[in-house]
Amino acid sequence: MAIDAITAKVITGVGTGAASPASSLAGDGGEGFGAALSRLVGTVEQSQASANQAVNGMLGGQIDVHDAMIALQRADLTLQFGVQVRNKLMTAYQEIMRMPV
What we know:
Blueprint: H1 8-12, H2 21-26, H3 33-60, H4 65-98
Helix pairs in contact: 3-4
C-alpha cells in the first residue's frame, strides 16, 4: 500500500489546472472565489465519506485497521484545514467591516 502525502495540493487542487489567484483577479474566466470554496467543502465531505467507508470496511473485515486509521486522519486534517480557512475568511470579513467608509 502506498501512502501519499496530504498537502495543500491535494486539498486545494493547486497544480491540477485550476486558475491561479492572479488569473482569477484579472477576470479572464478563471475560477471564482465561490467555486474555490465549493471545491474545498466538497473535498472535506468526500474525505469524511471515505473515512466512513473505511471504518465500515474495517468493521466488515475487508479493510485493514491501519488503512482505516489513515483515512480517519486524512479526514481530520482536511476538516481542520477547512476550519482554518473559514476562520481566516471570518477574520478578513470582520476587518473589512471595521474599515471606515
